[in-house]
Amino acid sequence: MSFAKPTHLSRDQIDTLGHELDAIRASVMNTLGQADVDHMRRMIAICRASEVGGRALLHFGVGPLSWVAGVLALANAKTLDNMEIGHNVMHGQYDWTGDPALNSQTFEWDIACDGEQWRHSHNVTHHTYTNILGKDRDLGYSLLRVTGAQRWKPRHWLQPIANLLLAMGFQYGVGSHDLELGKYKHGAIPKPVFKERLNRFLSKTAKQWFKDYALFPALALWSAPRVLAGNFCANLIRNLWTYVVIFCGHFTEGVSIYREEDTRNETRGDWYLRQLQGSSNLTGGRVFHIMTGHLSHQIEHHLFPDMPAHRYVEIAPQVQALCAKYGLFYNTGSLWKQYGTVLKRLFTHTLPPKPQTLGA
Amino acid sequence: MTLTATSDTPVAPNTRLGAATQAVAAFFQHPWVAGIVRLSAVEDSLRLLHPMLSLTQPRARVVRIVHETADTKTFVLQPNALWHGRRTALAGQYVQLQLEINGRQVQRLYSISSTPGARCFAITVKRQPGGLVSHYLHAQVKVGDVWAVGQPEGSFVLPATLPPKLLLLSAGSGITPVMAMLKDLQARRYPGDVVFLHVCRNPGELIFAKRLQAIAAQYPELSVVTHFDDISGRFGPEALQLAVPDVAERSTYLCGPSGLMDAIHQHWQAQAYTAPLHSERFVAFPLLPSSAPGTPVNVSLASSGTQFVTQGNAPLLVQAENAGLNPKHGCRIGICRSCQCTKRSGTVENLQTGELSSAPNEAIRLCISVARSDVTLLL
Ligand code: FES
User: Fold this and answer.
1) Distance CA A112, CA A102 (A)
2) Is A98 within 8 Å of B32 when comparing Cβ atoms?
3) Are B154 and B88 in contact (CB under 8 A)?
4) Min CA distance, A337 vs chain B (Å)?
5) What does the domain layout of chain B look like in residue ranges?
6) Where does the FAD-binding FR-type domain start and stop, copy by copy (chain B) (predicted)?
7) Conformational region of residue B144, where left means phi above 0, alpha means psi within -120 to 50, and beta covers everything else
8) Are A203 and B104 inside 8 Å of each other by CB?
9) Which stretches of chain A score pLDDT less than 50?
10) Which CATH architecture best describes the domain B165-281?
11) A93 Cα to the center of ligand 1, angstroms
12) Mean pLDDT highest for which of A192-201, A226-235, B170-179, B184-193?
């Protein structure tokens, strides 16, 4: 894969596309109301009930069945808290309500990633510089080579293993993202700044570990191993799930990668176009969409990151129709199909490039 | 006195339950505990158990709705343990109500119209034409609804030692704080001479008519005077002088529409009355007119105490930077919300949507907002 080809659309067309997308946005944003808040509160209620229930099953249940149920309930709570609640609230999708419990700038979630650091690495870096090589650090999480445009290094031979490890410990990948380790190593970040960031990351991780692997097991007395293992598995399930969903959002076959110099002086229309061509969707039912935090509508999410995510479902057909009208690729498919193409890309780029395909 | 949004400084609760609740909340706010169990998650769970349960938020439930007149209702509210007004509220004070109207949190201040010290407290609301909150309160609210409420506040109160002669003067819905004062006087068995003068359009609009009658019947020192504009013409200083000849000697408590209040204040000054005139003005948050692009407007930053004048079309973020400040920011194109801050008051235009908004205490993004009136930012 190489850089995005210059678009076949004229300047006027790009501007019109921008206005049409603005109109779609306005049609939803002007109708925000009680139903949207009710949806979020329902999600929070389900999440909290699921967490309390899951922990109760792990602590007081007997036998393997209740353990499995407890793990699933806790994994469900952690996934909802991470995806449908935390991710969306921290994007500011509910700031218009004025409810302090749903405020993007103060919300904190139940994962190893510190909220403030995520707001920077995700909201600022990833959403502003989506798929710009060298600027969007979500591109391969600076760890993996997902495009031929990234330089191949011998460590990429280990890419399949690195990928597996990243998947299993995804929350730490996300959490350490804002440290910008690579930049620090090249001396681009002063030591005190890096130290400060590292402390923040470590302190959040320590708290998460203390909670899931020390405090709650200790509270369970003789059931400690059962609780510890249950918490570990719940975290693992959530990590794997969020990894798969997020990788399907930008690393599938057909998404465009951009060069920094091509994205200078972008208009709003250009920006929309880059978001549209740099993201990919997943098909599925309502529950599936909720469990992905509606990142199954990654395209709509990247176009309108502060629109309450449960509304993406209703605008997706309009966005898709616009794509058809302008001859743009609306990248969507089932989880299996999309993740299959992600794996294919990962494995393809594990290998060093053949000299003749360089720059193709 | 102008009332704007109240501060929510925590005050020690007077009940044991309230103190215990605050101690538990403080425990959850400890950095280590907060890192493990988020207070917000605890609050969510408590709310699920019962809407009145909270560790941090005084809340109150509507237990009764009384129809006072065709367009006025009294809401009797039962507070939870975190509301300490039962011990601390003074007649004439107000509370902030936090309501959720179509998903949005809206705050308004209302005078307490009930006698201080009772288990429940009441607010009395007149439906205002086009009023978002008063309309909602009248049309949507049912017994059993729960609202977040603030603690009693305000300095429009009767003194501990009462003067020998009083005038409680109100117009329209301004009757609510002085009604609480009157009930308080009755409860304190005030031996002095009190005139209660209320102005409204016609007898049908007289709020608390029955209550007033009942109090007057038991309270010989009280004289209730009513002035109906529709019958006796517009009320003003002359009418006041006629109705209360000894007004100059009375400590006066005044609450009503601004026009009337201004007239009475001027009269007081012109006549050089020495008896004190206390008044309270409820300013509905004004919908400031927006000025055309290019008009100089004042931007005040409440936290840092700086101020600057802008007239350009550049976003507030750029304007603040030009003024030598360095507000937090990220993308500069309205996506990341790093630059989000609370706008206390004023009108801003959203550069992306062209939308104007003047709601108080609204979160705005500095990088895509321009000032279209004087604005105050919490920055
Ligand atoms: S700087 Fe990103 S929204 Fe303003």
Assistant:
1) 20
2) no
3) no
4) 30
5) 31-153, 165-281, 297-378
6) 55-159
7) left
8) no
9) 1, 358-360
10) 3-Layer(aba) Sandwich (3.40)
11) 14
12) A226-235
